[in-house]
Specification:
The structure holds 2 protein chains of 2 kinds.
Chain A (H helix, E strand, L loop, with lengths): L1 H15 L10 E9 L8 E9 L2 E6 L9 E4 L4 E4 L1 E6 L37 H8 L2 E6 L8 E9 L7 E11 L2 H6 L4 H21 L14 H11 L4 E6 L2 H13 L4 E6 L7 H6 L4 E3 L18 H7 L4 E3 L12 H11 L11 H6 L3 H6 L17 E4 L10 E6 L2 E2 L5 H8 L15
Parallel strand pairs in A: 1-4, 1-5, 6-7, 9-10, 10-11, 11-12, 12-13
Antiparallel strand pairs in A: 1-2, 2-3, 5-14, 7-8, 8-9, 14-15, 15-16
Chain B lengths: L6 H7 L14 H4 L26 E9 L5 E10 L2 E6 L10 E4 L4 E4 L1 E6 L38 H9 L1 E6 L7 E9 L17 E5 L2 H8 L8 H28 L8 H10 L4 E6 L2 H14 L3 E6 L7 H6 L3 E4 L17 H8 L3 E3 L10 H14 L6 H6 L3 H7 L16 E4 L10 E6 L2 E5 L23
Parallel strand pairs in B: 1-4, 1-5, 6-7, 9-10, 10-11, 11-12, 12-13
Antiparallel strand pairs in B: 1-2, 2-3, 5-14, 7-8, 8-9, 14-15, 15-16
Classes of the chains: A alpha/beta, B alpha/beta.
Amino acid sequence: MSRNMKKALLFVSTAAALFASPVAAQTIAITGGKVVIGDGSAPIEGGTVVVRDGKIVAAGSGVAIPAGAQVVDATGRWVTPGLFAGFSRIGLVEVEAVRETNDSSASSGDFSAAIDVAPAINPKVTPIAVNRAAGITRAVVAPQAPASIFAGMGALIDLGDDYDAVTKARAFQFVELGETGSSKAGGSRASAFLEFRNGLIEAQEYARSQRPMQMRPHDALLTRQDAAALLPVVNGEIHLLVHVERAADILNVIKLRQEFPALKLVLVGVSEGWMVARQIAAANVPVIASALNDLPSDFEKTAATQSNIGRMKRAGVTVAIGMINDSDAHKLHYSPQYAGNLVALQRVPGATGLTWDEAFASISSGPAQALGVDGMLGSLRPGRQGDVVIWDGDPLELASAPVAVMIDGVQQPLDNRQSKLRERYRTPQEGALPKAYER
Amino acid sequence: MKYGFTAPLAAILVVGCANTTSAEGPSGASNNAPKTAKVSFDENPYPSTYKPYGGAPTAIRNVTIFDGEGGQIDNGVVFFSDGKITAVGDANMAIPADVTVIDGTGKFVTPGIIDIHSHLGDYPSPGVSAHADGNEVTGPVTADVWAEHSVWPQDPGFSRAMANGGVTSLQVLPGSANLFGGRSVTLKNVPGRTMQSMKFPGAPYGLKMACGENPKRVYGSRNQKPGSRMGNLAMNRQTWARAAEYKARWDEYEKKGGTPPTRDIGMDTLKGALEGKIQIHNHCYRADEMAIVIDMAKEFGYTVSTFHHAVEAYKIADLLKENSICSAVWADWWGFKMESYDGIPENAAIIQNTGACTIIHSDDQDQIQRLNQEAAKAQGDGRRMGFTISDATAISWLTYNPARAMGIADQTGSLKPGKMADVVLWNANPLSVYARPEKVWIDGAMLYDFNDPTRRPVSDFELGQPGEGDTK
């Protein structure tokens, strides 16, 4: 036991010593590691990553170490961009079933599309620290639909240990148009699609009503706030994330652009996407998909297969992995495991997986691309935010873990409530005093 | 087998219809029967009709073997014939002529994976309300229900668990809404027309019990007892006290004869648990509640086989070891309800390192497809805190340990001669995310082969649906 303890302590101190001080305004060069850019390109052995003033300056082989840079030796380790959770509810929830700690949905509130998750994000919920320690640095955070198909506006956040979590508020509107949408709209998809069209039309009417001598129609269903919130959707100023699973629903969502041509559609879930992959690709609509759905868990997923993402990718669809209604507030660290499974599929006859490089991109640059922020996030290409993770092994492997995490160029603490419980109960027996005195 | 009743033993207990008591009470015939012809009842009224499907004698050579009991053989040979493991050895082991030989270079063999906690069939896909048959939520004490009576053999989850997870046996449990949820059933993971044709021959029954939030929430919200954890315990104790009386009445009758006691189907199950014939599988999250259950078991003279979920088992791993109770846990589930708040990914590793029985379970139609991966995560987290956990040990969490806790370790769960040839050939180390089952044998019958689409089960439900027969 004491030898184990020493080994563990040694490990912790090595990780802590990687960076001298956690400040952004300096130049850091991470050298010698296997560098993954995250844009789908192949890993680079013995590469260098340079971060200055919180941003990536350069990454790859043959990168010069700037004079005065703090050099971090990552020999034998992997260096990657921070992982980007493509769809989540992290930051909104402490304990899922404890209503008071769960801000993901306002099922009995008065508003829908106007709901903005940003003020509900709490950077100090324990899932943020736990997922940060697992290498997740950014996340798409979507509200859950209240009594409407319009769930409200989601945000892009970082998982840093500070109060400045929201990278981009009101980044997108989230809408349910499959089975969930049907039930929100009173019980049919026909009603759900009508509710959608009505919402967008009311947004346009709302815009007109702001002109002199104009008024909203008296039979408007949406509150003023909700109608106003849908205006940037119909105008294509913010993304529209639509959750659908079955192939027919996917095609019907794509068709909505005939009536509302400016929609910046992103499909979410999409378990049957492979069946209409050509059409999705032709419509140039990115997808944030569940990675491993392979059961007809409901009738809208009868064709679900783990080959879904691989087949869509081969058809030319831009695909990222998301945790759609799948431990979406606590276990975003499943996304590298899911990505690894898609790599495994390459060796299953008849299945279609992703290459390792594609799989990693689906949890780094993929979500950034889908949300149109890949110029800023999701890879180690120059100019991106300095989100860097140093791993003790292949980041998609089950036994691997980060040894250091940087967000916006700032080294992050990796301890959290779970690691503290672990250390307290490393030996379950009590010592001279009760466990409450051990920390 | 320690507690189970085998098919022949059960047959001895069966007496003629005329003498069998019914739920309404003893039949007239038994009242007039002489003292020597005591009333008994069939303990196995829905018997297994499962028959192995047969397969060629097969040797897998040049393969890395995890034997399920913590042993590893590199460059080894596994040979099975007539549905049983015949021999397991190193490269020098002789392979008989005229058998199918598979080259396992770069590949791995494990016993068939066993999930001790599943609701497949009882909560099948598609998860429509017409299929929600896993909880008898009409009362907190339903020891009378049997999970096997809800199993829908068409659940596509069975074949996914086989093809993607190498699962060859599973225990289907009632849900955790009730204090006494009812009897579990152990199945061989073979497609079948009927539940009976999937039923693991001779496996003992289990009794599902539940601690904590679920029973008190479900019934408390209806203004019924139990509405609190103390209410949970009060009802548990009252029920066990009645079961002890019921058992005493039958014991008295067995000894002295006379009028047989009135049959109570639920009490039959509890009596079986008190007699050690039925294993207790107790859903329990918190350490403090598990400690109370351990005392309750002592109070009424039964033993707990396994705490299920046990997210705080790491806090009392010493106590669990002392009481020889297994913990069936997830690798890293936490935070979904208050009693799961203290879940940590090192739970399994600390239990193992303390020397207590460790099992990885799924309780989930998706994770049952990758129990090997869950074990690998738990192993990695344990190693990172400095514990030594071999690959072969991590594999025992999904094979031999659950087999022992389910009372089937004499038949399956490890690659020992004479046991059922439940075997998985993996295309890489199953503790790698890049591994998948290549072939799965159940009792020596090859029921999955990823190279052969005709060895890929497709349930009735999936016929004629989009994606029928696809790789899943």
